[in-house]
Amino acid sequence: MSDNGISHENLPSSEQESAHGEVERAHDPFVDPGMPAHRPRIQDIDERAAKRSERTVAGLFTLSMLATIGFIACFVAFPVDKIVYVWPFGHVSALNFSLGLTLGVALFAVGAGAVHWARTLMSDVEIIQERHPIEATPEVAAQAKRDFLQGAAESGFGRRKLIRNTMFGALALVPLSGVVLLRDLGPLPEDKLRKTFWKKGLMLINQNTNEPLRPEDVTVGSLTFAQPEGLDEHNENFNNEIAKAALMIVRIQPADIKDKRELEWSHEGIVAYSKICTHVGCPISLYEQQTHHVLCPCHQSTFDLSDGARVIFGPAGHALPQLRIGVNGEGYLEALGDFDEPVGPSFWERG
Q1: How far is CA 248 from the centre of its chain?
Q2: What is the mean pLDDT of residues 113-131?
Q3: What's CA 156's distance to the chain center, in Å?
Q4: Coil, strand or helix: which one is 52?
Q5: Number of neighbouring beta carbons within 10 Å of residue 173
Q6: Alpha carbons 49 and 23: distance in angstroms, whole number
Q7: Where is it mainly found (predicted)?
Q8: Which residues, 6+ apart, have CB-to-CB distance to 136 below 8 Å?
Q9: Where are any strands of DSSP class E within 18-98?
Q10: Rounded CA gap, 255 and 263, in Å?
Q11: Strand pairing class (322-323; 270-274)
Q12: Which residue from 36, 103, 137, 306 has the highest number of Cβ atoms inside 10 Å of its Cβ?
């Protein structure tokens, strides 16, 4: 690189003469510069600025108190089911919105007040504390060991086995108290997740019309969703039951059905499978007429309904459970029992 036009007097030199005539090395950029000189803040030299900061901190703490009082007032004032419009969030729960807003303001004001207090009024002089070894001297360590052995001998821990063993038993059983408290998390599931609302004789009800299904209602290539007879959406337990019993019905030409058991459990090519994906339990709703494939919209697990609903793509662990169906004396489609395996995610592994 050319240095034309640059005065050599202004270029840094590797060696410079000190005031005493000694030669000093050029400044090393990696040398620890030490603590910078302390620079006072405006609050340190101007009492009026300090008073302003004090009022700011007090104002933030007062705002936090008012927000906390507002939190309590909102909890009492707003009913759980009250919905209000708040721009830009849209229609939201008045209780949830007000509680979140007031609690957020209360916590933010406390934090902002504490930070402002520390940065403007508390001492900002940095103090260096020299490090020193913290380990004990050999004499102290030896004395501590002797004291421990003497205490163990005097306690009788080694020779009083009854006390020692019962103490170990007490310490081992105490954690069981916490395990028992887990029982309050809810009722035991028992076998509820392995059974559904379906049973022999229940008619298949069209979820769109709430009418029983006849074979002629299901055309080739169509996808119909059904639920068990007697499952009312106004029932308290409806959501839990429909989450397991939701059914999808497809009619396939019997000659196109490859799985023998699927054909036996169908009626004139009408097959009924669980609507719940065996990956993480998403509802399946996409059907390809030409291939007889159904696709889960969540993670793209794909099942072949013409071949026992086996998995042909995606993360699902096993095929969709099939419901055996027939026709009752009045000509309506009915279930001939429950699913022969648990519906839903693969982690059950049928165990």
Answers
A1: 30
A2: 84
A3: 50
A4: helix
A5: 9
A6: 48
A7: membrane
A8: 144
A9: 23-25, 83-86, 90-93
A10: 9
A11: antiparallel
A12: 306
CA angle, residues 245, 249, 253, in degrees to nearest 5: 150
- The tokens describing 281, both together, are 């339990």
Whether 187 and 233 have beta carbons less than 8 Å apart is answered as no
Q: What per-residue confidence (pLDDT) applies to 151?
A: 84
**DSSP assignment letter at 272:** E
Separation of alpha carbons 236 and 244, rounded Å: 15
pLDDT tens-digit series, residues 42-77 = 998 999 999 999 999 999 999 999 999 999 999 999
The answer to whether 215 and 267 are in contact (CB under 8 A) is yes
Residue type, position 70, single letter: G
* Distance set, CA 347 to CA 125, 195, 320, 343 (Å): 59, 16, 14, 11
What is the tens place of the pLDDT at every residue in 166-183? Answer: 888 888 888 887 777 776
Per-residue pLDDT band for 348 (boundaries 50, 70, 90) equals low
Whole-number Å distance between alpha carbons of 320 and 342: 10
Tokens of 26: 């050029």
Q: Is 272 exposed, middle or buried (0-12, 13-18, 19+ CB in 10 A)?
A: buried
Q: Which two tokens stand for residue 257?
A: 């059905």
CA 74 to chain centre: 28
Residue 152's H or E segment, with its range, is: helix 138-155
**Angle at CA of residue 331, ends 257 and 256, nearest 5°:** 10
Report the top-level CATH class of 194-348: mainly beta
Query: Which two three-digit tokens encode residue 273?
Result: 């499978």
Structure tokens at 253: 């030409």
Residue with tokens 């337990």: 237
**Distances in whole angstroms, Cα of residue 304 to Cα of each of 157, 202, 217, 273:** 69, 26, 22, 11
Beta bridge partners of residue 227, listed in sequence order: 205
Indicate yes or no: pTM above 0.90.
no
Q: How far apart are CA 284 and CA 248, in angstroms?
A: 8
Nearest alpha-carbon partner for 198 in 220, 171, 166, 230 = 230
